[in-house]
Specification:
The structure holds 2 protein chains of 2 kinds. By secondary structure, chain A is α+β, with helices and mostly antiparallel strands. Chain A has helices spanning 2-17, 44-53, 102-113, 115-118, 151-154, 165-170, 173-178, 223-231, 246-251, 280-289, 292-298, 329-338, 356-371, 383-390, 411-419, 432-442, 447-464; strands at 24-29, 58-60, 66-68, 71-76, 83-88, 129-136, 139-144, 186-192, 196-201, 214-219, 237-238, 255-270, 304-306, 345-352, 374-381, 399-404, 467-480, 483-484, 500-501. Chain B contains 11 helices and no strands. Classes of the chains: A alpha+beta, B mainly alpha.
């Protein structure tokens, strides 16, 4: 009898020490990014899941602090900062058993910077790297083409995720797009586009096996359906709770609401190639006609922070002295008159139709523009078409919604991609002075100097009204009580390794 | 006519339809507010208060005013789509029924093909390609619905064609055009009228449904279906945002249906006692 009890105790202790991943976690998110290849994407929706599949050389934790990832340490090898050496973690394998080493790093960046990467939006983020050299199997050198002060942060996400050379080379691109393989804590086992993606714990993860055995990400574009699934117990975590349902979620038993200030800012961009918003006076009139504070107080119920530039207060380049345009209808009318815009002049607004809050904000803006004598029309679109087709081809209206992640917490990521001449999402605006400033800011590692230049850029953005920043969002997550250890990520990149579920 | 005035379904149906038409025609005079004017401070204002009789929506627009203006969209969509479908369908039905043969076979097979497409699927596909818009919506509906009119007219023509008076007119040397228009069309119109009246009700519902799905009119334009969609996130907190437009749809559709039923009962000799 005594022996038996001892055996039981021993079994319990052993069982505890070698706790197997257990339970299934179901997460509902709005968007399916469609391709899981890191170089094909720029969606936060990709990062929500990609962060569990892939690792980068460096890792940014939930407190937004940078630390070691697949590289254990790194340093410049020369005083002129032209070679950055990474020492790689040993004994790491991809989820299909392929070894992680210097060749994988070189392959990843050759691919990102080569013709394959040129097809996607991520390459533009990494053009400062000339090439990667293998020093020995666990050491690589990044040879820089130009200085890149945001490089380390950028190596923690998206395009810089390390991919398995053999798997990528041996299979057609479609295979990697649909069944990606990385070194991350979870492995993809099933992907049904527009429906769900299933991950299982990677027991050999270098950072330790995750606590939960299986994670199902469901793609549910309709926010009220997402919330209903949470309330019905068919989802444990729900991303993107709309503000209109925030009250309803916090009042539901067994569920709590988490709000986290996000780097995402929301703006209406101006189409400066399309009359009448090609005229600065008209843009000024519109800026004075829109009551951003009123929108935050009422429609957002306070879940938003006023901004004067297309970046959050967390971002390098944020200038607290820059103030949003005043809400002044009389001035707006006067400016329109000066610009020679007749009463009833049409003005088109394009938004993504699946987001209830955006739609309400856009309708409020439309109503305010009507109040100063313009005749607004509102077009609604689906997310993928919108960002991949309408915006790059500039077939959008005078004002068009844009939410920008700014996940590097550095204005460069937004400003360069949206304002520099010829960029993918900037088919229209061109300003030689701004281009020069953007290039100058990228050329130095002196962060204080960069901050000054980025603030100057924000000043030009503000004065020339390239866009009309509306607010910085707070992301709302609904989390069931059966989930433990979940921290709502400010940058939307989930870290699920410490999350567990009870039944 | 005397019978009509004592018939409750006629009175109720006609009354509702008249009310909706009046709301649409005199909307600017009747509506207490601009239907598109947001007032952020009146967000989700409760109903039954002097400023907002039926409450305000999520961006503070007066629901009563939007319902009154929404009647325009509903009527324009309902009437225009049915009118186009009925005209196209009647012409095709006349041709197919009167001339018969190969023409009949081709036109009716076309009709069969058209009927094989579920309407919502067709609408979603077409609108995804050409983009949403009021007139596009009307054309999609008309395009999907001409078949019903073509079939019913063809059936009528097939029987009328053989009647003595048509034979007589032909013997007297009347041309095809005269026979078709004077002797056949006028006699075949009765069922078209009934179908069209019921079709208006149906299409008002379809417009509401498609706009609810985001395939209909621009969200700034007050439309009952769009208002319903705007309100669905607030059902728990502000029932009035979608309840009142929902009621407007229900009542209007009921009105047209009652009128259509009455027309059918009155115009169909077999149902008369």
């Amino acid at each position: 009898m005594k022996k038996r009890i001892l055996a039981l105790v021993a079994a319990a202790i052993l069982g505890f020490a070698f706790a197997q991943p257990s339970g299934t976690l179901t997460i509902a998110q709005a968007q399916d990014p469609q391709s899981w290849d890191p170089i094909d994407t720029f969606y936060l929706a990709w990062g929500m899941i990609g962060s569990s599949i892939f690792d980068g050389l460096v890792h940014r934790d939930l407190n937004m602090k940078i630390g070691p990832g697949l590289a254990t340490s790194w340093e410049w090898t020369d005083a002129s900062n032209s070679r950055l050496r990474f020492h790689l973690r040993q004994g790491v394998t991809f989820q299909d058993g392929e070894p992680f080493n210097a060749d994988a790093v070189k392959f990843t960046f050759d691919r990102l910077l080569g013709p394959e990467g040129a097809k996607g939006p991520q390459q533009a983020n990494y053009t400062s790297i000339d090439h990667v050299e293998v020093v020995d199997p666990y050491t690589v050198d990044f040879v820089m083409k130009s200085p890149d002060p945001v490089l380390i942060t950028k190596l923690a996400g998206y395009g810089a995720m390390i991919v398995p050379p053999k798997y990528v080379t041996d299979n057609p691109p479609e295979t990697f797009n649909k069944m990606p393989i990385g070194t991350g804590p979870f492995k993809v086992t099933e992907y049904v586009p527009d429906d769900h993606l299933t991950l299982v714990a990677n027991p050999d993860y270098w950072g330790g096996a995750p606590k939960v055995a299986k994670v199902i990400f469901r793609f549910i574009p309709e926010p009220s359906t997402r919330v209903a699934e949470l309330q019905a117990g068919r989802a444990d975590i729900v991303q993107g709770v709309p503000i209109s349902l925030a009250d309803s979620v916090s009042k539901t038993a067994g569920v709590k609401l988490e709000a986290v200030g996000s780097p995402t800012v929301n703006a209406l961009r101006f189409n400066t190639c399309l009359a009448p918003t090609d005229n600065l006076k008209v843009r000024e009139a519109i800026a004075h006609a829109v009551d951003a504070q009123g929108i935050i107080d009422s429609i957002l119920q306070g879940y938003g922070i006023p901004i004067a530039s297309f970046q959050s207060s967390m971002s390098l380049g944020y200038d607290p002295n820059l103030k949003p345009y005043s809400y002044d209808l009389e001035l707006a009318k006067k400016l329109l008159q000066e610009a020679g815009v007749a009463a009833g002049a049409p003005i088109s607004i394009d938004v993504i139709g699946t987001d209830a809050t955006n739609l309400e904000v856009a309708q409020a803006v439309a109503s305010e523009l009507e109040a100063v004598g313009l005749k607004p029309t509102l077009g609604t679109h689906e997310t993928n078409t919108y960002y991949n087709d309408l915006v790059p081809k500039n077939t959008v209206g005078n004002l068009y919604y844009s939410g920008w992640g700014g996940w590097t917490l550095d204005f460069d990521n937004t400003a360069y991609l949206l304002y520099h001449t010829g960029q993918f999402w900037n088919p229209c605006y061109s300003n030689a002075k701004l281009d020069a400033l953007l290039e100058e800011e990228r050329a130095t590692y002196d962060q204080a100097k960069r901050e000054t230049i980025l603030q100057q850029i924000a000043g030009i953005e503000h004065d020339d009204l390239i866009d009309l920043p509306l607010y910085q969002s707070k992301n709302l997550w609904g989390v069931a009580d059966r989930v433990q250890g979940f921290v709502a990520p400010a940058d939307d990149r989930n870290d699920l390794t410490n999350v567990s579920v009870t039944n | 006519m005397k019978r009509a005035l004592t018939n409750p379904s006629f009175l109720l149906g006609a009354g509702i339809v008249l009310l909706v038409v009046a709301a649409a025609v005199f909307a600017p005079a009747l509506a207490p507010h601009q239907p598109t004017a947001a007032n952020l401070r009146a967000r989700l204002a409760a109903p039954f208060q002097p400023a907002y009789l039926l409450g305000a929506d999520a961006i503070g627009r007066d629901i009563l005013s939007r319902i009154i203006f929404g009647a325009r969209i509903s009527l324009v969509v309902g009437v225009a789509s049915v009118a186009i479908a009925a005209v196209i369908g009647t012409i095709i039905g006349l041709l197919a029924g009167y001339f018969g043969g190969v023409l009949d076979a081709v036109l009716m097979r076309l009709a069969d093909i058209q009927l094989a497409f579920p309407f919502i699927l067709l609408a979603i596909t077409v609108i995804a390609v050409i983009g949403p818009g009021l007139w596009k919506l009307i054309l999609v509906m008309a395009f999907a619905q001409w078949v019903q009119y073509a079939r019913i007219v063809r059936g009528q023509v097939l029987s009328i064609r053989e009647t003595d008076y048509v034979q007589a007119a032909a013997s007297l040397g009347a041309g095809h055009a005269r026979i078709v228009v004077r002797h056949i069309l006028l006699n075949a119109l009765t069922p078209v009228t009934v179908l069209a009246t019921l079709g208006i009700a149906n299409n008002i519902l379809l417009e509401a449904g498609l706009t609810f799905l985001g395939l209909g009119v621009d969200p700034t334009i007050p439309s009952w279906g769009g208002m319903l969609a705007d309100g669905r996130n607030y059902i728990e907190r502000a029932w009035w945002v979608s309840t009142f437009p929902g009621l407007a749809i229900t009542v209007t559709v009921l009105g047209f249906n009652l009128l259509g039923d009455w027309l059918r009962d009155t115009l169909d000799p077999r149902l008369q006692t």
